[in-house]
């Protein structure tokens, strides 16, 4: 599969009704209605606030693949890519789609935390992180998911998430636009047969992505926590792949990243459908650099503040306002930031920095929508999705 083919497929199958960061059950409901005419859709349970949780089933092959997105409600990029994927695999004229559905049975939960999606929060209705509830299963969503695992016993698990703009691919100036992880199955982080299979699939996806975003793929930390869903599945011996949709330059809507997630999904599913994966090629996984935390959204460099020469880091705070996600710039650090990078950098040239309102101090946690360097005005306006 070449890059041109992938690009054409994305342009063909992109679900244009889904855009931006705020994706809720209301957004996907009409899409589920349309999909129900082509494939099997089942309500498998209710959330803590009694929102339905749906399961989409496609294909009748022997290899069982389970995908779930928006376990954290504010991590929606992979949900968009999942619906792009669904448009692809339900196209009866596409030969690869037909092969996939012949070899695989695909199960997809498009939004596991519908309450979190509506509120645009990492937590569910009861303020519980579902990705720390895999063992105790205190929440309805966790119980629903656990029962599904017991019922279908997946051969491959795809845990779809999003990550903050702070992450870099290694300790470098390259953002981690996409990150992957084969979760550990024990405290020793043993390289088990299941992990090797997951690692081989991730290495395959990385090979493809390097043609699009060289040096912008990262490897997520594999510290073990049995309370996490991916670690629990790995502990059960299920080859599990964690996706983290990250930042691409100026892509706060995550529409460009969405495209790379689509490429990754297609690549991984094709590989599973057409290859007898042994895990023998797992070592290439370790060529992917482990994520660093080298980025801020904005760095204002080399300015004078209270007669000191400093750098100022600004990070966007994501806030849901009238069904729209606003990105509010806030100061998070003041000091020497030479070891960090900004997705946007403003060079102060030792000019004195003043807030838009000179009576408001430039301190951590303060908003910084406008500021002056000497007499020159700069704008860091909040954006919205």
UniProtKB/TrEMBL annotation:
Belongs to the peptidase M14 family. This is Peptidase M14. GO terms for molecular function: metallocarboxypeptidase activity; zinc ion binding. Gene3D superfamilies: Zn peptidases. It comes from the Bacteria. Residues 9-272 form the Peptidase M14 domain. InterPro entries: Peptidase_M14. Pfam families: Peptidase_M14. GO terms for biological process: proteolysis.
């Amino acid at each position: 599969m070449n890059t041109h083919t992938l690009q054409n497929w994305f342009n063909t199958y992109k679900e244009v009704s889904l855009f931006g960061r705020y994706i809720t059950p209301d957004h996907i409901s009409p899409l589920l209605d349309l999909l129900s005419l082509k494939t099997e859709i089942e309500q498998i349970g209710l959330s803590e606030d009694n929102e339905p949780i749906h399961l989409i089933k496609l294909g009748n092959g022997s290899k069982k693949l389970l995908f779930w997105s928006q376990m954290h409600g504010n991590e929606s990029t992979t949900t968009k890519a999942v619906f792009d994927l669904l448009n692809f695999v339900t196209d009866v004229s596409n030969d690869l789609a037909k092969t996939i559905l012949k070899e695989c049975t695909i199960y997809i939960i498009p939004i596991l935390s519908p309450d979190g999606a509506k509120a645009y929060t990492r937590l569910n209705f009861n303020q519980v992180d579902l990705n720390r509830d895999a063992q105790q299963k205190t929440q309805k969503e966790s119980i629903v998911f656990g029962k599904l695992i017991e019922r279908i016993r997946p051969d491959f698990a795809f845990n779809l998430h999003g990550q903050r703009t702070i992450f870099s691919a290694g300790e470098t100036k390259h953002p981690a636009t996409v990150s992957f992880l084969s979760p550990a199955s024990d405290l020793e982080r043993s390289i088990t047969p299941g992990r090797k299979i997951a690692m081989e699939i991730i290495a395959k996806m990385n090979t493809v992505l390097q043609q699009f975003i060289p040096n912008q793929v990262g490897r997520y930390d594999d510290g073990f926590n049995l309370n996490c869903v991916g670690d629990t599945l790995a502990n059960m011996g299920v080859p599990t792949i964690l996706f983290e949709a990250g930042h691409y330059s100026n892509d706060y809507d995550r529409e460009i990243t969405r495209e790379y997630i689509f490429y990754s999904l297609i690549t991984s599913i094709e590989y599973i459908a057409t290859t007898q994966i042994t895990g023998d090629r797992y070592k290439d996984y370790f060529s992917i650099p482990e994520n660093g935390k080298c980025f801020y959204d904005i760095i204002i460099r080399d300015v004078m503040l209270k007669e000191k020469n400093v750098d100022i880091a600004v990070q966007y705070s994501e806030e849901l306002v009238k069904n729209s996600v606003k990105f509010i710039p806030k100061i998070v650090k003041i000091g020497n930031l030479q070891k960090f990078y900004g997705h946007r950098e403003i060079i102060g040239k030792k000019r004195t920095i003043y807030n838009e309102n000179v009576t408001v101090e430039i301190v951590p946690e303060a908003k910084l929508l406008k500021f002056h360097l000497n007499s020159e005005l700069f704008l860091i306006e909040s954006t919205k999705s």
